[in-house]
Protein: Glycine cleavage system H protein
Organism: Tetranychus urticae
Amino acid sequence: MLVTNLTKILTPRGYKTALKLLSTPTWSNFESKGLSPANFAIQSQQLRCLSLTANLFSERRYHDKHEWVTIKDNIATVGISNYAQKLLGDIVFVELPEVNREVEKDDEVGCVESTKSANDIYSPISGKIVEVNEKLESEPHLLNSSPYDEGWIYKMEIPSEEEFSRLMDEDHYEKFVRIQDGDSAH
């Protein structure tokens, strides 16, 4: 159970990180001695690092169109969620937004094409696009393999974090996705 929870927390940042932690001698000692997760948390530097990593995830916010956004020094980085990339399937083309374009929240800024469909990319917040991930032009599959890291789509300069604070946090987004999945089943 704990392994599943740790993997779930770490895998959005990469399987290598999760596997590295789970293969440490400290983790092996934890399992072999039958220690409780609470005792291991006290004894393990790796788990303390994991706690810090989990806090970083809470800084990602989500738009109801399945774009994510993070902010550092008034620069927002935007991409599509893991949920969105799974729904799309194999992504084969990305139309990147125009650099220096001023956008408002909910503006269409680009397009993602997959083997299943084509979907617009929306801006989750207002600002000026200052950089695009040109790697996606030749490697659109990065949106599938690394949606929260190498698969970011664009960066934008934002006037304030007010709109960001109104987006869904990780917990609310997960509930939103579960509701959508439930609705699509009916």
Notes: The chain has a mean pLDDT of 79.
